[in-house]
Write a structure and sequence with these properties.
Belongs to the class I-like SAM-binding methyltransferase superfamily. RNA methyltransferase RlmE family. The protein is α/β, with parallel strands linked by helices. The protein has two domains: 43 residues, no CATH class; 180 residues, Rossmann fold, CATH 3.40.50. 41% of the residues lie in helices and 20% in strands. It is built from nine helices and seven strands, in the order αααααβαββαβαβαββ. A seven-stranded mixed beta sheet has the order 3-2-1-4-5-7-6, with helices on both faces. Helix 8 packs parallel to helix 9. It is globular and about 60 Å long. 33% of the residues are buried. The N terminus is likely disordered. The structure holds S-adenosylmethionine. The site of S-adenosylmethionine has 23 residues, from helix 6.
Length: 246
């Protein structure tokens, strides 16, 4: 197997995958057990390498790419709000697929990316780093930037710092999910789309029921790039019905 890999070293992915099965990081000494596990997982994860090869800031890009491949949520010209965007791989995907960087002929989209952490600019996106999405001022800033225009797609990959206690982490991510939903209800075009990440738990079903009140179609999606051991899943809500004003 090794020889084969060396012979076809020009097909880097084959070579890399072979190496991934064998390689163990050399610098594990002195690291906490959890850090050792993280390093081992990173080095064995084909999406980590693929992200490097395709210039994505992190492996999460492939989750959104896989969702889009199946459900076609993006096209050139769309306006997208990306909540919990740092370090920016979903933003990269959104700018490419909406043509908000105007690199192709045709309609030019708009992408707004928000995170409570600072992050580097992404060409074609308006990046709002250091801004907590759950704070009114952040949402007012976004509304001002939108200038009364509505969004086609709202994304929330927001995740709290995990405590390791499943029920607490679930509750916290659900709070972020509702913050995204509440904002999406105000600024989404009729027929628009919402993608929300949650870590599964007791409140997921209620969230799904609430999404169904406002969207014609709600699917639970677990892209291949989501790690098998993760409780992460995405609600893909399509066909925004609008809010009744009377
Ligand atoms: C899984 S990461 C997002 C990865 C990103 N989608 C990408 O592809 O690069 C989750 C992000 O949610 C952000 N986040 C958590 N709570 C937030 C909040 N209240 N407001 C804004 N961002 C938040 C975190 O700072 C973190 O960067």
């Amino acid at each position: 197997m090794n020889c084969f890999c060396k012979i076809v070293s020009q097909t880097r992915s084959v070579y890399t995958n072979c190496m991934l099965l064998k390689e163990t990081p050399r610098n594990l000494k002195g690291k906490k057990h959890s850090s050792q596990l993280w390093l081992m997982r990173q080095i064995r994860d084909p999406y980590v390498e693929k992200a490097k090869q395709e210039n994505y800031r992190c492996r999460s890009a492939f989750k959104l790419l896989q969702i889009n491949e199946k459900y076609k949520i993006f096209c050139p010209g769309l306006t997208v709000i990306d909540c919990g965007a740092a370090p920016g791989s979903w933003t990269q995907v959104a700018t490419n697929l909406t043509n908000s960087h105007a690199k192709s002929q045709g309609p030019i989209g708009k992408v707004y990316a928000i995170d409570k952490l600072p992050f580097f600019p992404v060409e074609g996106a308006t990046v709002l780093g250091n801004m907590d999405f759950t704070i009114t001022k952040t949402q007012e800033t976004l509304l001002a930037l939108l200038q009364g225009k509505k969004a086609d797609v709202v994304l929330s990959d927001m995740a709290p710092n995990a405590s390791g206690i499943r029920a607490i982490d679930h509750d916290n991510i659900i709070l972020l999910a509702y913050a995204a939903l509440k904002f999406a209800l105000q600024i989404t075009k009729i027929h628009g789309t919402l993608v929300i990440k949650v870590w599964d738990g007791g409140k997921s079903q209620e969230l799904e029921q609430n999404l169904l009140r406002f969207y014609n179609n709600v699917k639970i999606v677990k892209p291949d790039a989501t790690r098998d051991e993760s409780t992460e899943k995405f609600f893909l809500a399509r066909g925004f019905k609008g809010l009744k004003t009377s």
